[in-house]
Amino acid sequence: MSGSPLIGARAAHPLYGELRQVTPHAAVLLADNPSPMTLDGTNTWLLKALDAESYVVVDPGPLDGAHLERIASFGPVSEILLTHGHPDHSDGAREFAELVKAPVRALDPTFTYGSEGLRDGDVITSSGLELRVLGTPGHTSDSLCFVIDGEAVLTGDTVLGRGTTIVAHPDGRLGDYFESLKLLADLPEHTAVLPGHGPELADAGEAARMYLAHRTQRLEQVRNAVEALGGAPTPREVVEVVYADVDRVLWPAAEWSVRAQLEYLRGGY
């Protein structure tokens, strides 16, 4: 699988190869890797204060030489951060690090290169900014968000700009995901969402609360399907009932979430 599974549709006119300023301190470059799993493609975020000379780059994206060269063309890079290790976010990180002579930092030490790793509560001071690290497991166990206080939160695949994300069982766990969404729901009002896929959103708290409502509704649907199917259905059988209105190309991704939901209902968190 070339990227992390995400549920949604491709935008009519995505912008590839063009750096787009989104907030005073964050610009996005869209990787040309669209698919049913990655929406329009992976958002690579370039962060810096207005008077800073270098960028912090979040999620260099896939191993696509043209995309990595384009990121590098916008100026020096101080650090490279990963929201999580799925390949559509991380595969290009090592090559990009060597290209721009900057370290890679992540929660999972597998992806850390040339520097120390990251953990919940860390504060990164770089390129004239302070970024607060939030541990937000659920989509994956190594998922992180990065908060630019008073402005925005970079959410990776924890909250998307369109559609919903999966809980990538067994690495991702639904109980963890509920707690991470509650954490994001408590961010100050009007904290923008800068997601790993899809367009930016105006309010992280509102988006997180919508995700919580959706997950709660899906969990109830799964519970009802289990009962209707005799109490011990396979995840695929549950998908066929609960996700009957979803394009079948996305059913394998939905099955990951159903496995996580079944585990949660069994008390496995």
Automatic annotation (TrEMBL):
Domain of life: Bacteria
Residue stretches making up the Metallo-beta-lactamase domain: 41-197
InterPro entries: LACTB2_WH (IPR041516), Metallo-B-lactamas (IPR001279), RibonucZ/Hydroxyglut_hydro (IPR036866), Sec-metab_biosynth-thioest (IPR050662), WH-like_DNA-bd_sf (IPR036388)
A Pfam family hit: Lactamase_B
Protein name: Glyoxylase, beta-lactamase superfamily II
Species name: Lentzea jiangxiensis
